[in-house]
């Protein structure tokens, strides 16, 4: 990290989204150098370019400069504009890649966001749209981002590598974000899930459900896994199937796990039974990690804590993922906010999984400067 | 007197009988009855009208609801910064006198020149900062933004002056602080009555401006050039009990009203280039909200800066310690005014002047004495800078290199790492202390390393001055900044003072995790210093080694908690497993801090260290403590070192190696800088979820698992049973008995621990009460109450969260708290700020929000101030005060049309709001601003030109101005026309195809298609036939670009005495006026005398035929009017003969007589005739009367006859 006059400088393309999102929110310009400069195929990839284009669509007056090889990116953020946005996401990454960043920006727009994203809805790399729908949205609701216009709808499902899915995201705007105290996740009261399958036999979903239930039934009777088989125009371009599991606690926290079949033509095919069982185990792992926020949404929760009022927010997390750790560093770079990190070790006789981390911070007192005052 | 026995007074005896007693009795009895007036006189309280009742109720509720404000989280700090009291008023009204009097009142000290802010302790819980506001509009604007209380001085003998109103209006825009009026010069009134009247008038006018009932203070007269003591005392009391409202801007931004300024620039650099940018440190109490290090600040009058460092210093003017007594003692009445030269020390921009005679409080003197010596010694050494520079070139990492100069006196001092403040402290070595020191290796090693550091990193050290070094007062710092080399020479007396404290503190540090908290840079420095002998192994290793080999000793030394030790051991086991995996490179002399990564603790072992045997007990306790705080490790993993601020330099030093090497994020980042950007957290493969034991580890996460004590359903049920006991089922008649009684017996038999029982009972009671409360209290709680309670809770949490943390760590999380005395270092400040520094002008550091440092387009609502006598012109530069800033910009005024179009206005409307778009600093919506046309002098009678509020920040501005394109028809076919002159090319026409056009006379039409020749001509159709003389025009809207002028008013950079003469861009009008340019007017527009030619009409010609046909009346009269008869045709007058004349005269006389006679006769005749007529009428009347009578008689007779007849006929029939 190198602090320039008014701007920040970074190396490499990793954590690309974080940097651009935080830059947009903080108004600090950012320069990213050495993007894959040593590789055979240097510069920005298509999906990153697509992400920049999406950012350009939701902002107004931002300046983006990329050098000829694409190894240096300069970004001067404009104002978040929002409104109706349509974007064809590059199928190299799934919509989740774009959506994660978009959800971070959505509450701070000038007008309520209504984005239609097209591309790959489910792939094994990024969090799928189903996962974000079931975990990120309830999490954001805890921060006061709520209301009728807050929704994520999977219109069409498109598996990797072909894509062809479509997602509709609507999010209202907020002027300020509430501080939260999420210290106790509570006990898990039910497990829900979606087993989806497109362009394969509808039986696949049922097979997934059965195997997943077999694992989870050891803990809880209240398990319901929906099967979602999309046909025809809504089924995208590639075949595939997968499972998203969500455990809901008494205090309204959501922990989730997911697994998708390997994309067509890449790697060994998986059996639906294996997939169901492995996914259930992933959920158990997630439960073992615990916390009030699941591992893929840690950064979202931390961001919203940062952007809260100048009050103390607390969130109990599971172990920090490398992505989150980097995010924390970035937050410090952009907002000069440090989190108080306390490890909570489980008691002797407690059987509640591994160590937890209690994150505490004082918000920056961010207010949405994009929203118009009438 | 004393000797006399005082005579006992006779006691009053109450009457028990008699009329008085009766009366009293009656009164008593009645009293109880009268109590309830409603009962006694119910009619008076009866509902007269339901409607009125509803109305009054409604009104009462309205008033109640109006009092509600949106509840805010109370963020006032526990120890608030001093209250800023700004004393405002026109010149010569007595501002300085008032401040002087107030200071004297509170502190019993006399101040000469009031220069810069003066901070005093006014009470047990309140400090005040007085600052005088001169009448420069810049100062007024700046101080209005930071004021908590405004003392508005008004010369009563003169009345209100414009400055007062200007300041009030400035306050109104930037959040209204408390305002208290003070009337002075009241002794100028000779007449008591006029004085009273003036007071009243002024009061009411003041009330209309501030609010009804605003406090206006009267300072009646002067005694020996001061206000009357009693009145000043009263004013002081008012000030010290006053409550302040939180203002939006102030509570959401940190700010510092600097009371001290220092130039930190290298003197050599200044010498070589006197105009070089300076590094300046500003001191003051932090107010508003938390200030983050490295944030952006704006200094009004100078510009925007990035803060390079913030330190919190010991409070120079602290509140007294907690105590019972009511007042303050003399020692606690502190006064702090560095700019005003109180306490004998004057801080100038580049020197410290010390007034040695003790004229101030003793306590302060004591503090000053040692440092004054120091400072004096320092001042002399100014010239040896070069030598110092040369000396400092001793290589930093040579390890063995020591400095001779430090050796001499360095014997007395030692650098001690203080984990609390993350700093090295310099302390004097005692023999006893050395024993304590063994935890941090041998002391001489330390000395070595420390000295190396000293020589190398002096510049840094100086910057990161230890804020906890209380004894090294601010004076010392001042001195250090100037010449830190010689510091050691003068230091010893100070050191000794400090000594006792540090000794006391040492044991506390001994078992704290000092090494861990240390900043990385310093660690590495230390490493290099110790690399040679490596006598000091990290605690991490120590801990491990020690545990491996010598467990008993470790445990025995801990002796506190077994659990912790166990957990430690567990972890170690884990570590060992990891080691077996061989995933980690074990580096000699390097450790990685136990960090928490994907749920595993990773420790890298070091093998080289062998000095672990020293101070095992200490180490063990340290280890234990550190174990307790796994968090710092995790924190370290995330954020790097605690003082990770300047880690950029670190990267180069990595090769140096050494004892410590943290698994640095930088390093790891380099390897994965171009890795896949993915938020997925890969599952830990070591967990096998097929194993029962794994499954068991999360059993309790589910509702099916075991519940906690207080939540378990079974225990809750049992509790209920115990609480409510027996109950009878009424339907079945079955009686349920509680078995608590039996249980009780059993417990008694068992004689369980009573404490536990008691606690349980209490807990139960509490829970029951809670349940009861929630059931019955919440019914009345409104939404508002709930909200308030929520805010209250949040406020408590905010207070409690970081309460027990030491300041250095706390600052990392929260930022610097308001109320702290901070030193802010600002780099690259223009040299004029220092060279033209004038302490009479306030220096404010206003913190900026996250994106407030950027510049962009702003849309605002603006209204010309009703007292400003001219309207404002679009594109005339205007100076705005917005947020912290004052800047010149070029606004475009516009107004929104009904269809949402923003139409450009040439001038602001007279009495209406309009929109204004500017290019300026991004400021949150809802922020108020004010505009002045010029900050120079007081030429205009009311300087505030306009006020308004920011509405929107939008990069795409859509202001349009009307543009009419004009064309002329050159060919007309019926309704189609060819029009030229409107466009120049075919392309232009193509763009406007289909556009509607209009002629002056109102005929509408449409552009159809371009014509090839002439260029720019087109075909258009109209609703009617055009004339060649018609003009066709096209109404269009042309977008206007907002000019990008953002010119901060740099008034503080101007030379002393000219600070109020900032002149930015001039308006066109001013320019023309200044240069004497007058536009040549269009000659067509000039007025000329109107010359009208006489109108001539041709004669009307009527054809002969027509003439003939006309009737005579209408025929043209051929005959000319006769006119005058010519002289020759005129008849001459007749001249009579005398005789003839006589005859005629006689005739005339005769005829006159005759006429007279005739006339007389005629009158006589006339009167006679009149008489006759009268008589005649009389006769007539009489006659008619007679006739009437007769007729009456006759008719009556006839009637009677008729009646008779009819009666008879009727009878006859019967």
UniProtKB/TrEMBL annotation, chain A:
PROSITE patterns to which the protein is assigned, alphabetical? RTC
Where found? Nucleus, Nucleolus
Keyword set includes Nucleus: yes
| A single cellular component GO annotation | nucleolus
Q: Name a Pfam family for this protein.
A: RTC_insert
Q: Where is the RNA 3'-terminal phosphate cyclase domain?
A: 10-341
A biological-process GO annotation? endonucleolytic cleavage of tricistronic rRNA transcript (SSU-rRNA, 5.8S rRNA, LSU-rRNA)
Task: Please list the GO terms describing molecular function.
Answer: RNA endonuclease activity
List each copy of the RNA 3'-terminal phosphate cyclase insert domain by range: 184-287
Q: Which UniProt keywords apply?
A: Nucleus, Ribosome biogenesis
Query: What domain of life is recorded for the organism?
Result: Eukaryota
Protein family (similarity comment) = Belongs to the RNA 3'-terminal cyclase family. Type 2 subfamily.
The name under which this protein is listed is: RNA terminal phosphate cyclase-like 1
Organism (species): Sphaeramia orbicularis (orbiculate cardinalfish)
* Gene that specifies this protein: rcl1
Automatic annotation (TrEMBL), chain B:
Location in the cell: Nucleus, Nucleolus
A molecular-function term among this protein's GO annotations:
GTP binding
Return the InterPro entries for the record. Answer: AARP2CN, Bms1/Tsr1, Bms1_N, BMS1_TSR1_C, G_Bms1/Tsr1_dom, P-loop_NTPase
Record's compositionally biased regions (Acidic residues): 433-471, 511-527, 539-583
Taxonomic superkingdom: Eukaryota
List residues of the Bms1-type G domain. 80-245
The record's section on SUPFAM superfamilies has: P-loop containing nucleoside triphosphate hydrolases
Which is one Gene Ontology cellular component term of this protein? small-subunit processome
| Short name of any one Pfam family annotated for the protein | AARP2CN
Main localization, broad class: nucleus
What are the entry keywords?
Answer: ATP-binding, GTP-binding, Hydrolase, Nucleotide-binding, Nucleus, Phosphoprotein, Ribosome biogenesis
* Keyword match Methyltransferase: no
| Ranges of biased composition (kind: Basic residues) | 1-27, 1158-1169, 1185-1195
Cite a single GO BP annotation: endonucleolytic cleavage of tricistronic rRNA transcript (SSU-rRNA, 5.8S rRNA, LSU-rRNA)
Question: Is ATP-binding given among the entry's keywords?
Answer: yes
Compositionally biased region (Basic and acidic residues): 28-39, 477-489, 741-755, 1125-1137, 1170-1184, 1196-1214
What ranges does the record give for the region Disordered, renumbered to this chain? 1-45, 427-583, 732-755, 1105-1137, 1158-1214
UniProt lists the family membership as follows: Belongs to the TRAFAC class translation factor GTPase superfamily. Bms1-like GTPase family. BMS1 subfamily.
Tell me the protein's name. Answer: Bms1-type G domain-containing protein
- What taxonomic ancestry is recorded? Eukaryota, Metazoa, Chordata, Craniata, Vertebrata
- This chain is encoded by the gene named bms1
